[in-house]
Structures are given as C-alpha cells and as structure tokens.
Write a structure and sequence with these properties.
The structure holds two protein chains of two kinds.
Chain A (H helix, E strand, L loop, with lengths): L1 H15 L16 H4 L17 H11 L3 H6 L2 H4 L2 E2 L5 E2 L16 H4 L24 H4 L20 E3 L2 E3 L4 H6 L6 H8 L39 H4 L34 H5 L8 H4 L7 H5 L9 E6 L14 E3 L5 E4 L3 E6 L5 E5 L3 E3 L12 E2 L1 E3 L9 E15 L4 E2 L13 H4 L2 H12 L7 E11 L38 H37 L1
Parallel strand pairs in A: 5-13, 11-15
Antiparallel strand pairs in A: 1-2, 3-4, 5-8, 6-7, 7-8, 9-13, 10-12, 13-14, 13-15
Chain B lengths: L1 E4 L3 H24 L8 H29 L11 H13 L20 H26 L1 H6 L7 H25 L8 H8 L1 E4 L2
Antiparallel strand pairs in B: 1-2
The chains are: A alpha+beta, B mainly alpha.
Chain lengths: ~525, ~200
C-alpha cells in the first residue's frame, strides 16, 4: 500500500513536470519493423518476381491495395490541376511560371516529377490505374529514381543522363521494400523543383535530408533533434497530401488541433497554439498580424543557394566554335547556359514581406498582361486592416520570359524535343519554339514575341530556425528595417508623424534657445550691475 | 539671509525618483521611437514599460502623501490667480534682469510661487496622467481592440504619446534652467538635495 502511494506521488510529480506537449520525441520511435507495419512486403508472393516496367509493379500493388489508384486519381499530385475559387484552372499543368515557363509542350521532361508513368504528351490517360507510380513515394530503399526525360519512368536498363551514368532500377527489390514516404521521397521532386537542388522554393532543398537544428529546428536529425519528417505536418489521408501554395492558410484561428487538424493542413498553431510565447506576452500581440514564419524563418536558402533570377532573353549565345556555353561562378553554380539564359543565385536570402490573406492571384496564359512594367505572375492578396491578412515572408523569383507582343499574353515555347522539332533546346529559334508550343497547346500566337520581366511569389513555411535565431524587435521596428516598404499601417519605431516631429523639434529648440538667451541676459545684466556698483 | 527647511525627506526622495524615471522614460521612449540606438530596441522597450509602472506608483504615492500630510495646500492659490501669475512672469521677463527681489517670498508654509504652483499642478494632474493614459492605451492596444476600440486608433495614440513626450522634454529643459534662478545659481538644487534653502529675508 505504502509503495503504491509512493509510486502515485512519483507519478504525479512526473506528470506535473512532464515534457511540454511540443516534445516531438514520440514522433519517431526507435526503428522496429513491427512498430511500423503489420505487413512485410518482402513476404508477398506477388512481389517475388522480376518486373519489367513500373506499371507492372503498380498492377501487383493494386491486387491488395485495390482502391489506391482511385485515391491517387483524385489528388493534385496526379492531376496537376487545381480549380480556384475564381474559376481559374491552375495547378502545375496550367500555371505560368518564370522558371521553365510551361509544362505543356515539354511533358516528357517535366513529368519526371509526375506520380505516374508515360505522360509524354497531351494524350496521357488520366484514368489509367496501372500508370500510377506507387514507388516514387513509397520507395524505402532510396534507389528508385525517375529518368529525367523519361515521362515518369525510371531507367529499366543501365543508361546515362547528361554524361553521368544512370543505373537501371531493381523494381522487385524496391517493391519488396516499400515504406511510408519519408523526406527522401518527397524531396526527390520538392527539393529539386525548377530543375535542381534548391532552385525553386528557397525553403525546400536537400539540406533538409539531414539538417542541423539551425537549418530546420523541426526536421533536425542532430542528436536530440526533433527529427520530424514531411508527413508529420503534411498528414495524409487517403493519399491526399495537405498543403497547397495555391490555397494556403494565411491565418489559423483554431489553435491546438494536432494530430487532427480541423483546418487542413497542420499549421504552426496546430501544435504551438495561438499564444505561443509563454514568457513574453507582448509577442503574442503580434500573432494576429504576423505569420509565425515571418519572425521564425529569418532567412531562407540557409545552406544551399537558391535561384533568384532567370533571364531567358539572354539564352542562345554560342562561343567562337559555335558550341554551347556554360559559365559558372566561383561556387560552381551556372550563371549562364546557352539553353536557359542568365541566372542569379543567393544564399541566406532575406525574404520579402507582404500582407497575405491566403488568396493568391495568378496570371494564366489567357490573361492580358501589362508589358510596360514588371509583370506579377502571381501576387498575394491582403491588406493591413483585414482580419484574415497577416504579414508573410515570400521568396520572390524574378526573371525575363517570352510573351506575345500583340496579344499581350504569355506564351508556351516548346523547350524539350529532338533537333528539327522546333524545340528551343535543340534548334535555338524562339519564334519556332513558340509557334510549335502554341500550336501544340491549341492556342493563338500572333507571330511576334519579346521578353518581359516577371516576378513570382513563393510563400515561405519551411526552415524554421531555433527560437534563439528568430528575428528581434528592431529587425522590423526601426527605420530601414525589414518592413520599411510595407505601407498602410503604423509601425512603432519605423513610423512618425512629420508634423509632430517638427513640432517636437520646435519645442525642444525654442526652450533650449529660450533658456540660453535668458541665462545670457541674466549674466550680462548682473555684470553690468556689478560694474555700476564699482564705478 | 536665512535658512528654511522647505522639502521633507519624502518629497526629495519622490522628486529625484520621479526625475530619474521621467528621464529614463524619455530616453528609452525616444529609442523605441527609432531616433537613436542606446540600449537596443528590445531592452529599451522593456525598461520603458517597467518604468511606466514606476511612474504610476510614484504618482499614487505622492498623491497619498500630499493628501495625508495636507501638504497639497502648497499648491492652492488664494486671490487673483491670473494677476499673481502675471507678477511672477513679469519678474522672469523683466525684474530678474534688474536684480529686483522675487515677488513671492519663500517660507515654510509657502515654498512655491504661483507660476510653479500652476505648472506643477497641471503637470501632475493633467500632463503626466494624460501621457500615462496614452502610454497604457498604446501598450494595451490589443486588449482595447478586443474590447471594441477602433484598430486604426493605434496611430493617433502613438502620435499623441510622442507629442506629449516632446512637450515634456521642453518642460524638463525649462525646469532645470529655472532651478538656477533662486537666491544663488545652485541654491534651489541644494535645497532639493538637503531640504534646506537660503532665502531672502
């Protein structure tokens, strides 16, 4: 009885001092296959045979996971389409971007990041179940890679790409060692968006595979790191992976709701609540106007350079021998390529800040653009006074890309294709590449093109730094601080009323001058009096 | 010449604490306003907010002391207020240069001249409370908005708080200078330190 009492006291003391609910230690218990799954795929007869192609593996998967492909068919990962509230059809398939401009016309290259097999042109069958690629997300071996221009297929025999060997994949080995997606699976496309590591997002790159805490405090794989992976926040149900740059949540008003987020997907507040700063109440007063990301992601591309500028208008230069040129900077990053034009890169990038209410406005290939100024391909909506809007950090990628000077629309050049097909990367003729691409897309092209400067906003949510490295007050509350150019609201430390400042200066100067003159006159008059006294 | 005991120990303590607090509030306030960097924004912000409570505390303490000791009578003016103030103003504008005597003699029961009385009274009853109210409205802006205040009021609140601070600087400058207009240049300051002042017979 006494022992039980002691135990109870010990337990209640322990409960009282229990680690905060934020401890993520429970996220990833020590690896024991029994803790992870009730099925060992290497024991399945269906998988104990050689596979010739990816779709064959998918057919085997579907024998047990009968509904999996139907679930996949409903995802953005498959359709590359997002129907926006305003009726615009976006998604990777349709959106204009200022990296590789357009998917359509370049499918076999772009769709090496599609979770399917064989999307090589516009005739791809989106209802095919066997064309779903299970392995790219569920490869537990790290050996499954899609061939860069294989329209979603991996290499089935040893080959090479860009002069480097590209080995064939052992499909049976991968199929027998499937797993829940980890950071490698997501990263193979999302860390390498835009054509290579760190190019596109700035807050997503391969440094997140094994990051130190200062790169990403949640994903840190250091000793005592939280070791959270992508799907801990992007909690997936029925293959629907939440988290969209087309329809993001700018403000979570619900707070604690992990692990069952009532507003899709998990936000910072799902775990940290709506008053996350325990010892510093004034900081909580910022939560309604500042996204957590704004202070807690002080810079992006902390380890690896991200692309900041891509000027297609400079493409097509050859050296004296008529060969293609690749110029690199001292860090070995390409700053010029004949195929692609001019690039600029940056590390430790300070994001740009905008009011954002979650509505992202996109230009499409049908939008008439104003070519007299820089064209915003997308821009965040939001205003200081609006209760949904908060100040968010963005990576802004700028560049120059082709457009139709008569119709004032962006164009879809065909970039990838064999010599003679009109593809720019083989024939280096913009007019032909645009004509080919627009014809393929069934869109109008006047025959006259030029390049226009564009910018594209990428909201930042990853690479959350440890709290000791988050922004300080004066990073924003100061003249020439990070929010210097964000107008429309009063920011203490930055703003002043010019009339009051002048008035204040006047009060101080005139009272100083007054006492000086008065003091001087007293001095002079007393001197005179003493003089008179002597005489 | 004679020496009179003008300022009780509490009064002197209160005066210098208030001087220190107001000076600190002005310096940290101007730093938070972005005019210079001294403590760093965050430290200045914390000091400013802590000292604001200090100012409130000392004002409450002073009210308590003045009321319970009855010393508040020092601030009352009998007779024609405007006329008496004008006499004092005339002294500072003209008489002081002619070595005229102070129009109001200091003694134990009347240590403040009419201009001092009205100035300190306005400062303690109007100026500082107003500044404190706007300061607290500024600090508790989020709470007030939650209670229904118009969120756009942040700017006027901040701007008025700033304006009052500038006016307070003007007061401090003139106040410090005026301490030199006693019997000797330092007799007033000495009095505020020791309590004893040499006054005209």
């Amino acid at each position: 009885m006494k022992k039980l009492l002691v135990l109870l006291i010990c337990l209640s003391v322990y409960m009282f001092y229990m680690p905060s609910p934020l401890s993520a230690r429970s996220f990833h218990l020590s690896v024991d296959s029994l803790m992870i799954s009730t099925a060992d795929h290497s024991k399945f007869e269906q998988l104990k045979r050689p596979f010739e192609t990816g779709p064959e593996v998918t057919e085997a998967c579907l024998e047990c996971h009968t509904e999996a492909a139907k679930q996949i068919h409903q995802t953005k990962h498959w359709s590359w389409e997002v129907l926006m509230k305003d009726g615009k059809m976006l998604g990777k398939q349709h959106v204009v971007n200022n990296f590789c401009i357009s998917v359509e016309g370049n499918e076999p290259r772009c769709t090496s990041c599609h979770i399917g097999y064989g999307w090589k042109d516009r005739n791809f069958d989106f209802t095919s179940q066997r064309n779903v690629d299970c392995l790219v997300c569920h490869d537990g071996t790290g050996t499954y890679k899609k061939y860069p221009s294989g329209a979603g297929h991996p290499a089935y025999s040893d080959t090479s790409f860009g002069g480097k060997p590209f080995p064939a994949v052992d499909l049976a080995y991968v199929a027998q060692n499937v797993a829940n997606p980890n950071r490698h699976n997501c990263g193979i496309c999302h860390f390498e968006g835009g054509g290579g590591d760190a190019v596109k997002h700035g807050d997503l790159d391969n440094s997140l595979i094994e990051p130190m805490a200062h790169v990403d405090v949640h994903m840190s794989t250091e000793k005592d790191g939280l070791n959270m992976t992508c799907t801990d926040c992007h909690q997936t149900e029925g293959h629907q992976v939440p988290g969209s740059r087309y329809e993001p949540h700018a403000r979570d008003v619900h707070g604690f709701d992990y692990p069952l987020p009532d507003d899709y997907p998990t936000t910072c507040s799902s775990c940290h609540g709506l008053e996350p700063h325990k010892d510093y109440a004034k900081l909580n007063d910022h939560v309604d106007k500042l996204a957590c990301q704004t202070c807690h992601i002080p810079t992006i591309a902390r380890e690896r350079p991200t692309k900041m500028w891509w000027d297609w208008s400079k493409a097509g230069q050859f050296n004296e021998q008529g060969k293609q040129i690749t110029r690199k900077d001292s860090a070995g990053l390409a700053v010029y390529m004949t195929k692609k034009g001019e690039f600029e890169w940056a590390t430790d990038v300070v994001p740009e800040y905008r009011w954002f209410n979650g509505e992202m406005n996109y230009v499409t290939f049908l939008t008439e653009i104003d070519d007299s100024a820089v064209v915003e391909i997308n821009h965040p909506d939001g205003e200081p006074g609006d209760s949904l809007s908060r100040i968010w950090p963005f990576k802004v990628h700028r560049g120059k890309q082709p457009y139709d000077t008569v119709l004032k629309r962006f164009v879809k050049p065909t970039l990838y294709g064999p010599k003679g097909s009109g593809a720019y990367w083989s024939d280096f003729d913009w007019d032909r590449a645009i004509t080919t691409g627009m014809e393929y897309a069934g869109m109008e092209y006047s025959g006259s093109y030029d390049f226009v400067e564009t910018e594209m906003y990428w909201p930042i949510s990853h690479m959350v730094a440890p709290k000791t490295e988050s922004l300080g007050c004066a990073d924003c509350h100061s003249r020439n601080g990070r929010l210097q150019n964000l107008a429309g609201f009063y920011l203490p430390g930055r703003d002043a009323n010019p009339f009051v400042e002048m008035l204040g200066l006047l009060v101080i100067i005139s009272s100083l001058a007054g006492v000086l003159v008065h003091g001087y006159m007293r001095f002079v008059s007393s001197k005179r009096r003493t003089g008179e006294g002597h005489s | 010449m004679r020496k009179v005991y003008l300022y009780a120990r509490f009064q002197r303590f209160w005066h210098w604490m208030q001087a220190f607090i107001i000076f600190s509030l002005l310096v940290t306030g101007l730093e938070v306003h972005g005019l210079f960097e001294l403590l760093g924004y965050e430290a200045a912000f914390h000091v400013h907010n802590a000292f604001a409570w200090g100012l409130v505390l000392f004002i409450v303490l002073a009210f308590f002391w003045y009321i319970t000791t009855g010393d508040f009578r020092q601030y009352l003016i009998e007779g024609n207020l405007v006329e008496k103030i004008m006499m004092q103003v005339r002294y500072y504008m003209i008489g002081i240069f002619k070595n005229e005597p102070h129009p109001f003699k200091k003694n134990e029961i009347s240590r403040l001249n009419p201009l001092q009385r009205i100035t300190y009274l306005m400062l303690t009853l109007v100026g500082l409370p107003l500044q404190i109210i706007f300061g607290f409205a500024y600090y508790y802006y989020n709470e007030l908005v939650a209670l229904g205040m118009n969120p756009d009021w942040i700017e006027p609140i901040a701007v008025i708080h700033t304006l009052l601070a500038y006016m307070l600087i003007g007061f401090v400058i003139m106040h410090v200078y005026m301490t030199t207009t006693g019997h000797t240049v330092t007799s007033n300051i000495k009095a505020m330190i020791t309590g004893w002042e040499e006054v005209e017979e």
